[in-house]
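Forwarding the complex inputs:
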Amino acid sequence: MTTMKEIARQTGVSVSTVSLVMNHRDAGRVKPEIASRVRETARQLGYQINPMARSLRTNSTRILGFISDAVATTPYAGGMILGAQSAASRLGYMLITVSTDGGMKEDDEIDALKRYGADGFLYAKMSNRITDVPSKLLDYPVVLTDATDRNGVIPSVEPNEFLIAYDATTHLIKAGCERIAYVGCSETMIAQEGRLAGYRAALENAGRDFDERVVTNVPNNGPALREVSTLFDAEHPDGFFCFNDARAWYVYECAARRGLTVGKDISVVGVDNHRVFAETLEPQLTTVELPHFEMGYWAATKLISMIENRPMNDIEWPKTTAPLPPIDAPIPAKIHCTLLEKGSVAR
Amino acid sequence: MTTMKEIARQTGVSVSTVSLVMNHRDAGRVKPEIASRVRETARQLGYQINPMARSLRTNSTRILGFISDAVATTPYAGGMILGAQSAASRLGYMLITVSTDGGMKEDDEIDALKRYGADGFLYAKMSNRITDVPSKLLDYPVVLTDATDRNGVIPSVEPNEFLIAYDATTHLIKAGCERIAYVGCSETMIAQEGRLAGYRAALENAGRDFDERVVTNVPNNGPALREVSTLFDAEHPDGFFCFNDARAWYVYECAARRGLTVGKDISVVGVDNHRVFAETLEPQLTTVELPHFEMGYWAATKLISMIENRPMNDIEWPKTTAPLPPIDAPIPAKIHCTLLEKGSVAR
DNA sequence: ATGAAAGCGCTAACAG
DNA sequence: CTGTTAGCGCTTTCAT
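Prediction (whole assembly, four chains):
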C-alpha cells in the first residue's frame, strides 16, 4: 500500500504538499507544476488514500450508517440500500448497513456503528409509518427513509402515495376500463390515505364518479379473499388498482375461479412489493414499483448535505460515473417520492 | 469519546497497561488487582475502543466485505446479510455490504472495500451457480455463499438441495398424497439436480415408484403455465413439489381454473424465494425456505476462522447474546446447508 | 509487573 | 508557496 510519504519521497516534496494536492486543496497554495508532478507519481503508484488514518485525524470517516428494520423479511430494503449506496459511492462515502430484525438489539447496532465512526445515519422503515427516532441517534445527522418522524423534526424521504395511485388509476382509465375498483388496505397506514386520495382524484379528473361500492379495504390475510370475491360478484369491476401484490393475488384467484383472464377480461395494476409477480406475470399484470431506490438515493444525498453542512443543490457531483438521477433540488417531480425538510434542518 | 489515555489518568496507570487489559492480554502480565481497577473505570466511563486507531496500528479492521449481486432485485440477499451480520457481530466484526447490481462496477466496489480495510470477503450469488471469483479478491480470504467456485479452491457454503427436496417430498407423502408431481426448473442450475434426486429418493424410500410422467421442468415464464396445465389434466396429481414460488403460482392458477382448492383437494409445497406466498397463502401452502440466513451465518463464521487462522470449532463464542445456531463444526445436519472446504483452506 | 517511547498514515497549524 | 512539527488513539518493543 503506497503512502503519502512514499509519493513525497519520489517527487521530492514534503508530505504536507502531497496531502494538500491529494485533497484538492492546492489551488493557490501549491505551484501547479509541482501539483501535477505529485498527481502523476500518485497515479503511477496507484495511490489510494487510507481512510482510517484520515479519520483518526479528522474525526470524520465518510461512513454512513444505514439502519433498517427488515432486510431479511422483505425485498424492499434491497432497493433502498442500493439507492443509498449509489449516492454515497458517488459522493465518496461508504455505507454500513445494519438490520435490527433477527434478534439484533437496535441500540447495540447503533453503538457499533458509532464506534466505527459513522458520520450520520439513515433510519429506514419498510413502510411509511409514524416513527420514533431512537434517542441514541439524535446527536447525529439523521434522515428517515420511508418513515415519518413523530415529532416532526427529522427530515424524511417518503413515497408520494398520491401520485403513485393517481398514475396507476389513470393507467387503468386509459386502458379502457369502465369500472375501476380500489382494493386497499384496512390497516391504518400513511400510504392508504394518499393512495385512496390519488385514486379518487384520477377518477374525478377523468370526469368519473367516485363510487364507494367498488372501494374495499381488506386486511392482510385469509378472509380478505372473501371480500374480494364479494366485490367481484356484486360490482363486476373490469379494472383493479391493488394496494400491493398480496391483494393482486386475491384478484387473480377470484378471476381464475370465474374463468376470467387477467389482461383480457379484466385489468389489474398492483403496487409491487415483492418481485414474484413482476417475474411471473408479465405482461398480464402492470406493476407499479415503489421508489425504494430513489428514496435511498435522495435520503443519502440529503444526509451528506447535512453532514457537510451545505445545501442540496450545492453538492458537487463527481463526473466520473454512470448516469443516475441528476442532483438538483428539489427532487424531480416525476420521481414518486418527496423530501420533507423538517424543523431541525439548519437551512 | 473516552480514550485509553483518560482511563490511564483516572486509574493512575499507563496507557500500555490499559491497552493490555482492554485486549485481554493481561494474564500474568498485569497484577489482577490493577487489571480489575482498569476494567472498572473503563466500565464507568463507558469506554469503547476506537477501531480506526487500532487498525492503523494493526493493519486489521475486523471489517468483513459482503459482495452481493442482487440485493435490490431479490429478497434472498436480506436473509444472507442478516445471517452474516449476526455471526460477524457476535465475533466482534462489522459487515460492509456492497451490491453490484444497479450499475455499480464490481471492481470499484471491491477497491472501496479494500480501502476501508476489509479483512476478508464474502462473495454471494443469489442462486447456486458455478462462479468465477474476481481476481481482485484472490489475495484475501474469501468464502463463497450460495455459489460454487469454478476452480474448486475457494470454500463455499451452499444449500443442501437434496435434503430440501427430500424433506418437502416426505412432507407430501405424510400428508397422504398419492401422486406427487415435481414441478422443476428447466434452466441448468445446480439446485435442480439435487432437488430432483431428493424428490426421487424420498419417493423410493417410501416404497413408491419414480414416475417420469409427473416430473416436469418448466422455464421461468409464460408458456410454463401450459405445461403445468397439461400435467394437471393428463396425470391428476394430488401433490406438488414446486421448485420455487413462481411455479407454485402456476399450480394455484391451474387449480383455481378447475375448481380445485389448494389445501383441500391438492397439496402444494413450494420452495419460498419471495415472501408473498408466505404472507398471503398460509395455511394453504407449505413453504420451504432456503437457508439464506444460515448460509450467511456459516459463511461469515468460516471467513473469520480463516482470517484469524484458527479452526472453526476453536472459535470462542461470546456468551452474551440471544440463542442462535450453535457453533460446532460441522454444521448441524438439520440445517439445510453445507460447508465445502476447498483446497486453498489451510485446514 | 509496569511505563516510556516510537510510530501506523494522515491533517493542520505555523514558520519560513 | 513549501516544509517542519505535533498529534489523532492505539499497539508494541524495550527498559526498568
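The domain at 161-290 of chain A is CATH 3.40.50.2300 (Rossmann fold).
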